[in-house]
Write a structure and sequence with these properties.
This protein is an alpha+beta fold and 850 residues long. 24% of the residues lie in helices and 29% in strands. Helix 4 runs parallel beside helix 7. InterPro entries: A-macroglobulin_rcpt-bd, A-macroglobulin_rcpt-bd_sf, A2M/Complement_sys, A2M_TED, Alpha-macroglob_thiol-ester_cl, Alpha-macroglobulin_TED, Ig-like_fold, Ig_E-set.
Length: 850
Amino acid sequence: MIGITVFQPFFLSFTLPYSAIRGENLPVLVTVFNYMTECLTMEVRMKETDDFRIQSALGAVQKMCVCGGDSKSAKFHIVPVKVGEIDLEATAVSMEDDNTCVNQIISKEGIGVQDGVRRKLLVEPEGIPQEYTKSFYLCPEGSSLKQVIDLPVASNNELVPDSTRVKVNVIGDIMGPTLSNLKDLLKMPYGCGEQNMASWSPNIYVLQYLTNTNQLTDAIQDEAKGYMRVGYQRQLKYRHHDGSYSAWGDNEYQNSTGSTWLTAFVVKSMAQSRAFIDIDSKDLDFSMQWLLNHQSKDGCIQSVGQVFSNYLKGGLGDGENVVGLTAFALIALLEAGIDKNVPAVTNGFTCLDKQQTNADMYTLAVMAYAYTLYNVDSPKRVQIMAKLEARAKMPNQGQKYWSQEEKKRDKTDDDYFYWRAPSAEVEMTAYVLMAKIALEQAGAVSQAQPIVQWLTQQRNAYGGFSSTQDTVVALQALSMYATLVYHGGMDISVKMDIPNSMYQTGINDSNSLVLTTWDLPQQTTQLRVNVQGKGCAMVQANMKYNIHEKEEEKEGATSFHVRVNLYRSRSDIDNCKKRTLRICVRYALPNFSNMAIVEVKMVTGWIPVKSSVKELVATNQIQKFEINPDRVDFYFDEFDHLERCFAFEVEQSDIEVSNPKPALISVYDYYEIKDSVMTLYEIKTICGTKEELPFPEQWKPYRRFYDDNSQRRLPSEQSGSTPGPVSTCPVCNEVVDASSEDFKMMVCKAEAVYKATVGRSGKYSIKIMTNFTNEGKRHLEIYVNSVMGSQCQCSVLGDTENKAFILTPLSLLDTEAKKLTMDARSTLIHWSNLVEKSVYKILTKQGSAC
């Protein structure tokens, strides 16, 4: 064997941002690394294409001297003019010296040697992105079926030119879109213990379906099992020492207890995964026992720990959250394989038997599936199914779904997001579907068809739905339906017409799981689909485009209000390459949001200062963050009507863009993605200019709105002054310094530190959820009314539902009379995550302070 050794005297490298926005003046660095001991005269050339313009004064060719063991960069300023991935190509050749290298020893060996490098750069359109997805499950039943799909777009003056992308996917299986994108069913972060389940659980249902229908291939099995193993291992990060699970785990995010709801979810998924991957049985049994330990004498599962989704909490009446949670936990236990005759299960259904008449639609739907698994012939199940059927919605012929009785936000002419049903509606409809088709009930297929038709129209372009829970439950329901109706023998043709073009594909048993994708012209607004033959086809049309931001839209946001300010760097105030970015958010709808995400996309050429982002977690201003190549995701447990602000540092990277375009900040409710707002912010490049930036304000992390009528403690009487009247009213503070010694002393002196929901409508205005003690949290779930002097006002109590801490003597709570007296010995503090964590630290982890 002959060996050949090749030596390359130099090589090239690109320095590029992760992405750029069309129209930005972008410096592209082409670096030459010289491996020789002597200097080289290099000619570096950027290949010109129609995708970008070269703005450099030196044009597309630059010469430079690169000496031995050194590197040097040529900088080409380009302006991308095409949206999408563009090719960048540069070459370098070593030449005879032409006085480029002055007073240097020039290598003769490398002359004529050439190297090249090619990279792709993602160029995004300017403006705010919009997306539509329309999905149809078409079953011609041996004949022909036609479907017209309209894709409306924004008006020309709002639409960003050349930003439209239209794509159609066709596949011969209702689970096909999920199979084609198991890795990324949601274009959302998966950064907490509940959200991670969306990367794990759907793989279970895919494998169950394909196994039951004999369609499982080695490739799909390996892929799905791989994602399951990763999801399972990642989930263990959110496990507590007692076997429970919580959103953030038993770590630096300081969750004090596990969540009964999330633990039930994990128990179910772990048990179902055992058929496909290795699961530690001891861990599973330990977690299941923790769940059963939180069952009350009446059979109900206690609500322990935080649940971030409001419709999982109930809230339409006393005790509904307990009923819904109990039904959810019973489903988890039964699907995990526990015997339905054990006391834990029978007692759980005793709890449901007593409460079902008070249940809201969501709870009824969960209960319906729980009773189906327990006893499909149960009279209680029959009653619940009758109630659900009587309240079903039928928007179009051949469709059926369920919703809460509250008014939905309708799609308006100005709403460019394709209107997709709220996550709660998808989830409860999926539970009803499973209640109808589980255990192969008579007439299941015919009853399921209109429900399936509605559900499939709510899917996103990636195989999932809007959020994690609706995706998990809906995919479980659809996989059960797909198993029920699968019989093979598919032979179907799909034709699609658009002006001046026609697309066609055939689907049979051998390719029913293969995705066909058609990229359509930008101007496409209507599709005419014709499906013929035996079987069914999933047809999804997806349209993306950008619109220009309008001030009236930003000011009129209906879900969240966002303010963005840019200041000089707090840590390096005279450094023109650093900034402090401050973002303030408040919830514009009643009550609270669910868990919310603030996505901050970086301006091209700017990066976050990681230490400043970490500080937000250390000071309890946020729950968690994730830094991605082009954005930072910030997690918040919830937002309310009081503004919540946070700030972090950004700095300019080596890529100094001279005219960076504005970047996008998105705020959305994780469990109701329709509740969202987007706004743009910009960072001007001021180095070398006379432009000034404002100095940082002296702000606190949380900005609260004060009420002048709030009761405040008066200063101590000074000697010689005339004593005033003694206040018998409680002290109401919307803002406290939770890190101060005064706050610590106030908490230590209080006999009871109640966390409560105040301002409730209905029979009782206050729900006391927890009493914080030096042994941790004691869960109470007590409903009372407040009693205080007629002259007293307290803004913390408010007219709308909020959370608060109530520091009070134990004697002021009368549980029999259902009242909580509030006088001068009582202090009410508006709840925040920061305050709660400080209270917990004072009373437990730093209990010696008391």
